[in-house]
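Dear colleagues,

For the upcoming journal club I promised to circulate an example of a predicted protein-ligand complex. I picked one with calcium ion because it came up in last month's discussion. The inputs are reproduced below in full, followed by the predicted structure.
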Amino acid sequence: MENWNFWYPLMSDYNFRIGGFYPAASIADFNQDTDVDIEDLLTLAENWLRTNCGPCQWCELKDMDCSGSVDIADFAILSSHWLD
Ligand SMILES: [Ca+2]
Ligand SMILES: [Ca+2]
C-alpha cells in the first residue's frame, strides 16, 4: 500500500479530461457551431470545384474525401451529415 503522507501533486497528476456530453465534431461542421446546416453548405459552395487541394482536407477543409478537389463526393459527405 502506498504511503500518501509523502504525496506531492505534480501537474501530471491533473492531466485528466472532464467528462460530459460534448457533441462529436462532424467533419462537415466547417464553422464548428455543432451542426451541419446551410452555413456549412455555403462555405462548401464557396470552394466548389477547387482543385490542387494538396494534403488531405486542404482547400479550407472542404476536400473531405482527400481527392484533391472539392466536388460532388464532398457534397455527398456533407449531405450525409446534414443537421448532425
Ligand atoms: Ca456548422
Ligand atoms: Ca474531394
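Two points we might discuss: The chain has two helices and no strands. The mean pLDDT is 83.

See you all on Thursday,
B. R.
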